[in-house]
Design brief:
The chain is of the alpha/beta class and about 350 residues long. It has a domain at about 1-180 and about 230-265 and about 305-315: NAD(P)-binding Rossmann-like Domain (Rossmann fold), CATH 3.40.50. It is about 40% helix and about 20% strand. Helix 6 links the parallel strand 5 and strand 6 (about 170-175). The structure holds nicotinamide-adenine-dinucleotide and uridine-5'-diphosphate.
Length: about 350
């Protein structure tokens, strides 16, 4: 039985490949390489000692998906493929509805046709919108503040509708908080193209001299030091949560055939705390200056983690120092990401 991993050449997907292979699963990766480099999969092979089956294809190509599901005898899907830049989604919403929503609809149609009825879906804490209380529990009301978030909510709704229509479907919706870090080998990690939108990749580029300083968005939030607080989670912990979700779904042990669960640590850190932690890990000064708040940002966001512990028997284990140390190790070993390093 093989697991299809869509978007498996990307940041989180490549780490998931390692975890699934090391747990003894057979996998096939399908990725259109729109935001990835297939060298990541060579690195997955180097870490695990196992060859990775790879199909360069788009999730919107339903015929190709059906051929892949049949050819490899897939029994389940872990679905990472999609576009993820909030700012870009407000400029080109159609691309986001097409890639994320239409792509997922085609993937589900292909699965229905091939009799594959289990999927884990990459959702996001962004579906909670402005927090009404903290920590965020899974039954917190959902809302979307940008097209990216709306695509995640639409897909969640699509999965809930399909699950309600037929009990043989099994869906695990995983709502990620802020994934950071890298595999501890330093062989795979986050490889953003262009100017990073997210805090951690930006900090790394200040540490290694590619950017002069970090702009800290907002210094007057009602938080302990005035800067925004987020729940950062090590990518290795995150993908271990996927493995547990896959096992729970496959064993039929889930309390319902469609569950949504938070993957976070339950602890929030401010932007300035992240800067200090990264300085400790890298032994570099991170220069910064304050800039106005970024549109759409909330002051504080962190997860309630009890449901993940109960349902998945999973809890994040790696601390902030490990997140920063592993990120820095990856960046030092791959100063230009996958592009200029040997496979
Ligand atoms: P990523 O961009 O590194 O990985 C996504 C992968 O999907 C890339 O390899 C890309 O080439 C591929 N892809 C995109 N569109 C495709 C298509 N139409 N067909 C086939 N392949 C396609 O991003 P990531 O950080 O690894 O995120 C993975 C998933 O997790 C995404 O769905 C993202 O929305 C979600 N997520 C990420 C974060 C985060 O902060 N990284 C937070 C919450 C949710
Ligand atoms: N942030 C910042 N400067 C940057 C990027 C991010 O101050 O260059 C802040 C941002 O305002 C938020 C936190 O860092 O408080 C995390 O932002 P990120 O974009 O990484 O994640 P998200 O906003 O999706 O939680």
């Amino acid at each position: 039985m093989t697991v299809l991993i869509t978007g498996g050449a990307g940041f989180i997907g490549s780490h998931c490949c390692v975890t699934f292979l090391e747990a003894g699963h057979d996998i096939v990766v399908l990725d259109n390489l729109s935001n990835a480099n297939s060298v990541s999969l060579n690195r997955v092979s180097a870490i695990t000692g196992r060859k990775v089956a790879f199909e360069a294809a788009d999730i919107r190509d339903q015929a190709r998906l059906e051929a892949v599901l049949d050819q490899y005898g897939c029994s389940a899907v872990v679905h990472f493929a999609g576009l993820k830049a909030v700012g870009e989604s407000t400029k080109d919403p159609l691309a986001y509805y097409d890639n994320n929503v239409v792509g997922t609809q085609r993937l589900l149609s292909a699965m229905a046709k091939c009799g594959v009825r289990q999927m884990i879906f990459s959702s996001s804490a962004t579906v909670y919108g402005e927090p009404k209380y903290l920590p965020l529990t899974e039954d917190h009301p959902t809302s979307a503040v940008n097209p990216y978030g709306r695509t995640k909510l639409m897909i969640e709704d699509m999965l809930r509708d399909i699950a309600a229509s037929d009990p043989s479907w099994r869906f695990g919706i995983l709502r990620y908080f802020n994934p950071v870090g890298a595999h501890d080998s330093g062989l795979i990690g986050e490889n953003p193209l262009g100017i990073p939108n997210n805090l951690m990749p930006f900090i790394t580029q200040v540490a290694d001299g590619r950017r002069a300083e970090l702009s800290v968005f907002g210094k007057d939030y009602e938080t302990r030091d005035g800067t925004g607080i987020r729940d950062y989670i090590h990518v290795t912990d995150l993908v271990e949560g996927h493995l547990r979700a896959h096992e729970v779904l496959a064993s039929g042990a889930a309390p319902s055939n469609c569950f949504a669960v938070n993957l976070g640590t339950g602890t929030g850190y401010s932007v300035l705390e992240m800067v200090r932690a990264f300085e400790r890990a890298s032994n570099k000064e991170i220069r910064y200056s304050f800039a106005p708040r970024r549109d759409g940002d909330v002051a504080e966001c962190f997860a309630h983690t009890a449901m993940a512990e109960k349902l998945l028997n999973w809890k994040a284990e790696r601390d902030l120092d490990a997140m920063c140390r592993d990120t820095w190790n990856w960046v030092c070993k791959n100063p230009r990401g996958y592009e200029t390093t040997a496979a």
